[in-house]
Every structure is written in structure tokens, then in C-alpha cells.
């Protein structure tokens, strides 16, 4: 496994905190099947990705909290991707991340096992989760609710743009029709040359 910096342009689908012989790192899963280690902590990776998307995580947290009516274990939204939190390790130090994130549209299933459950990704990879399946399902459902909210908002904006485009088209057609009739009346009254 290669050590690199997470690059969301490569379509990150999951991130989990891991301990390695180099210390506290982040394992990054990409849609193309690659998995890489990022030498930064999970919090640093998420902040870096948010900066690249011009996302204020504090403001986002307030809005997501209102939408989901909860304060803790909130998904992170980067562009159209919603990353749901899942407990993925037991921390060794007080400030170490416990939760990782999985992009909800890349989750195929949540399957129970002896340690809790695992997230089955659409490409067949599995990520171990250290909480009950019920708790994992709740976090997944919250991520889906948020994704649905985002899609509804985008549809509303799309519908508004579509209405504006239709109105503009109607106005242009009306003007062209008026120009056509004026030119035609000039041709008829001028005797046509």
C-alpha cells in the first residue's frame, strides 16, 4: 500500500483512521479500487478536502445538524458526496479519531459479523465497523437523508433554471416572430425588389 496524500479529484469513497508503524494515519479508498495511506490524521485529511471544495466545516455542521435534528455523528458533505461516519477503531490516545467516513452512494450493504459489522462497498471491498449493525444503519440512513435533501435542493434549482430558460426562449421566439412580421410587412408594402 502506497503512502500518499488524499486527493479527492481521484474520487475518494472512504477514509478510515489507522495506526501504522509510522503512527496515526488515514487509509483512503478510491472508486477505482486503489487504497492508499495518507500520513496525516483523518481530521487533517477531511479539513484539506473541505478546503479544496471551499467548504466551511463548522457552518456545514450547523446546517447538517438542523437538517438531521442531531448534534453528534454528522455526515460530511463535499460537493455532491455525502460521507457517513462509522466507528472504525478504538483510539490509543485521547485525541485520536475513532470514526471514519464512507460515501453513502458507494455503500452496497451493511453486514453483521462477530466484531459488529462491516460496510460492503459497491466494488466488493469491505471495511470493518466496530459498532452494531443497527448503529451503522442509523448513520447510513442519516447520510441518505442528507443526500436526498441535497438532490431535492438541486432539483429545485434545476427546475428554476429550466423555467428561466423556457421564459427566455419564449421571449426570444416572440421577438423573432415580431421581427419576421415587420420585415414581411416591409417587403409587401415596399413592393418587393
Topology:
Elements: E1 2-3, E2 12-20, E3 23-30, E4 35-38, H1 42-52, H2 57-68, E5 76-78, E6 81-87, E7 99-103, E8 107-113, E9 116-121, E10 126-129, H3 133-189
Provide a brief overview of the structure.
With 193 residues, the chain is α+β, with helices and mostly antiparallel strands. Helices cover 41% and strands 28% of the residues.
Describe, in plain words, how this protein is organized in 3D.
With 193 residues, the chain is of the alpha+beta class. The chain has one domain. The chain is built from three helices and ten strands, in the order E-E-E-E-H-H-E-E-E-E-E-E-H. The strands form two sheets. Strands 1-4-3-2-7-6-5 form a seven-stranded mixed β-sheet, sandwiched between helices. The termini are far apart.
Characteristic terms for this protein:
alpha+beta, 10 strands, 28% strand, single chain, 193 residues, seven-stranded mixed beta sheet, elongated, three-stranded antiparallel beta sheet, 3 helices
Please summarize the sheet with the most strands.
Answer: 7 strands, mixed
Helix content: 40-55%
Order of helices and strands: EEEEHHEEEEEEH
Strand arrangement within the widest β-sheet reads: 1-4-3-2-7-6-5
First-to-last CA distance: 80 Å
Mean pLDDT: 84
What structural class results from the helix and strand content?
alpha+beta
Number of helices: 3
Q: Beta fraction of the residues? A: 25-35%
What is the 3D shape? elongated
Oligomeric state of the chains present here? single chain
Total domains: 1
How many β-strand stretches?
Answer: 10
Please compute the radius of gyration using only Cα atoms.
25 Å
Uncertain stretches? none
